[in-house]
Write a structure and sequence with these properties.
With about 500 residues, the chain is mainly alpha-helical. Helix content is about 50%, strand content about 5%. It has 19 helices and 6 strands. A two-stranded antiparallel ribbon has the order 1-5. The protein starts with a helix and ends in a 19-residue tail after the last helix. The relative contact order is 0.14.
């Protein structure tokens, strides 16, 4: 009961699915009445809300986990990549992070000189800015959050932002000394070693993006090797875990489905085909057999409106596998799992240390951790012994690395769709098949299970996959320093392949 009461205010913000800034709302205490102890849960909630609701939805389509349910229409624009600034897709996330989380963080730092509390704030900023850059490439940074003194901040490029937040965290960490966290902390319960471990894991994410962008690659390579060698990371999973199966306290993504009384999601062809090919028991966690024949059937990306033309009859809900949304009713929002961390370590060991044994061990730990998080720990060893996923039987480091990337993509499903989309762009795995959706429907040979598919209806001018989100409409309306419009086929700065 104490835990529920403590987090109720922050949780209600998330369930409302709107960006409510407690610093300005007359229904909330303000000024000196709001202490850092009370503000941190709100700041954490705002970023978690952005990741676990809006980003979970659209990145689920971009990572080709989700498709639009045939007899519904809410997310046709995501399935068909039909988004521009007028779609306002990123507006709520943008508001949550800036007017919510970052404003709260600034408020905390104006009220405390505790170095450990300041450090936590800097790590939260690094996480929030990583999400902003991975969505839009650019964002207000150096001039952001100046209030009425600067209402139209300039936008900085992603490289500048990453370098800036990395330095902020490095400087704050050097200043901690023997301090300890004094604030209520839903994510790590005030355990400073876990905040340091999370910061190291975020550094690892960002360093790898910089390396693959060719930015100071030699220096960042030494940094990733050092951080993996030091091996000071967080315990368990990093997650925002305040939800229950009571109405009003649901996971926010599940809560939006519950409120709408409509389930718009079916499973996409790539994830279903890959789970099938790998004989992966995790299929049953996130995907339901179709009601027509009791089979797992994935929908080809962007094909909903083409199916009647292709097969002569309309494509029905019963034909395709729904997403098992009930599995998410009280699930935490996964910020960074132990599984993801171990996959990153496996990549570093293989790419930069040429340590095949260490890479294999980290890969297996990653897979086991994901199975355990889904209540399937007893099935992991049989799965790892399968011919196609046994990394020790795969010849050549390039093929081993591809397997690491593929299994990471498989493990992100119903966990962290935003990071899945980012990693697809960074690694080009799963790769985009050369076949069209119609070719695959017709049974043309050459499709490899799990490969990305150019949507059958695709509003990106040159086809292909989503490379970014358009800038928020609210930014365009209110800030004349917002950069010139970018389309969805314009890569993020680190996506240079």
């Amino acid at each position: 009961m104490k835990k529920i009461l403590l987090y109720s205010a922050a949780s209600l913000l998330m369930f409302s699915s709107c960006a409510l800034n407690i610093n300005d709302d007359p229904n909330y205490a303000t000024g000196g009445d709001v202490t850092p102890d009370l503000i941190l849960p709100s700041a954490e909630n705002y970023i978690a809300n952005a990741l676990g609701d809006q980003m979970f939805t659209y990145a689920g389509f971009f990572a080709q986990y989700f498709e639009q349910r045939p007899e519904n229409n809410q997310y046709n624009n995501y399935a068909e990549l039909h988004l521009d600034e007028g779609s306002n897709t990123f507006d709520r996330c943008y508001n949550n992070i800036y007017a919510g989380a970052f404003a709260d963080i600034d408020d905390i730092m104006s009220k405390t000189n505790n170095p450990a509390d300041v450090y936590v704030c800097k790590v939260l900023r690094m996480w929030g800015y990583q999400l902003l850059v991975d969505n839009m490439s650019d964002a207000p940074y150096a001039e952001a959050l100046k209030g009425n003194s600067l209402t139209t901040p300039k936008w900085d490029d992603g490289k500048t932002i990453f370098e800036g937040v990395l330095k902020e965290v490095d400087d704050a960490e050097a200043n901690i000394g023997a301090g300890s966290i004094t604030m209520k902390d839903p994510i790590f319960k005030g355990k400073l070693s876990n905040w340091k471990g999370f910061a190291n894991a975020l550094r690892l994410r960002i360093y790898l993006r910089m390396i693959d962008a060719g930015i100071d690659a030699a220096s960042y390579t030494e940094k990733v090797k050092a951080i993996v060698a030091e091996n000071k990371f967080f315990d368990g999973d990093v997650k925002y875990d305040v939800f229950t199966n009571a109405e009003g306290q649901y996971n926010p993504w599940y809560g939006s489905i519950f409120e709408l009384k409509a389930m718009n999601y079916v499973a996409a062809y790539p994830i279903v085909s890959y789970y099938k090919a790998m004989n992966d028991p995790r299929m049953s966690y996130g995907v339901l057999p179709n009601t027509k024949a009791g089979e797992y059937v994935g929908q080809l990306p962007g094909s909903k409106t083409r199916m009647k033309e292709w097969q002569g009859v309309a494509w029905k809900n019963a034909d395709v596998s729904s997403i098992n949304h009930e599995a998410m009713v009280a699930e935490p929002i996964y910020i960074m799992t132990r599984s993801e961390l171990q996959f990153l370590i496996a990549e570093v060991q293989l790419r930069f240390n040429n340590n095949v044994a260490a890479a294999s061990a980290a890969y297996k730990t990653a897979v086991r951790a994901d199975f355990a998080s889904r209540g399937m720990a007893d099935k992991a060893e049989d799965f790892l012994s399968g011919v196609s996923v046994n990394i020790d039987n795969i010849d050549g480091n390039s093929e081993k690395l591809k397997l690491i990337y593929m299994q990471k993509w498989a493990s992100f499903f119903m966990r962290n769709h935003m990071e899945a989309w980012s990693e697809i762009r960074r690694t080009d795995v799963p790769k985009l098949t050369s076949l069209s959706a119609k070719d695959i429907f017709d049974g043309k040979s050459g499709y490899v299970p799990g490969e990305m598919i150019d949507p059958a209806v695709n509003y990106i001018q040159n086809g292909g996959l989503a490379k970014r989100l358009p800038y928020p409409g609210v930014a365009r309306r209110l800030n004349n320093n917002t950069p010139a419009e970018k389309k969805m086929d314009a890569p993020i700065f680190w996506d240079v392949k």
